[in-house]
Amino acid sequence: MFSQDDDSTGIALGVVFGVIALVVGLVIGVAIYTRNLVQPAAKPVAVSAAAAPTTPAAVASDAASVVVENGVVKFYFASGKADLAAGATEALADVVKGVAAGKKAVVSGFHDDTGDAAINAELAKQRALGVAAALKALGVAEDKLELKKPEQMQGTGSNAQARRVEVTLQ
Question: N or C: which end of the chain has fewer CB within 10 A?
Fold first, then answer.
């Protein structure tokens, strides 16, 4: 007399447990997959006179990073992305100090030569706006910040080196 109810309850529980097992397996699989593909971010380089310049050769092929070269903070971006690299705050510390001392922060965005030029130009603009937002979040006033469109937006070097935003003090 309980046979039919037990069968449908058993099927329902089996489906529920199967879905739960599938979701758990998917989450674990994605976690393992991303850990094997994503390399740890490069240690951030703080901007300071004592810091040795970091060369663009150290830029990963398709990963976000930030380096300081001759007092210029360079943010490199993954292809098609506008996400800032880890260490952005630390790298911008001396820029913020320079602005507090009366200088102006100039932000310029560049792009690589792959894909549609108009889309690349818009992405370079979004990246520059992201860096400007990071500076504003660190207390840089709007009037001490200049977004400057470079005459030649296509960056030099490899594609990984070309996808960048530069921050200088003037």
Answer: N
The DSSP H or E segment spanning 107 is strand 105-109
Structure tokens at 26: 């998917």
**Residue 135 contacts residue 105 (beta carbons within 8 Å):** yes
In terms of pTM, does the model score above 0.85? no
Return d(Cα 16, Cα 6) in angstroms, integer: 15
Concatenating the DSSP letter of every residue in 42-88 gives PPP----TTSPPPPGGGS-TTS-EEEEETTEEEEE--TT--PPPTTH
Q: How far is 146 from 62, CA to CA, in rounded Å?
A: 28
How many whole angstroms separate alpha carbon 92 and alpha carbon 130? 13
Q: Which residues pair with 111 in a beta bridge?
A: 154
Residues 16-23 have a mean pLDDT of: 87
| pLDDT score recorded for residue 30 | 75
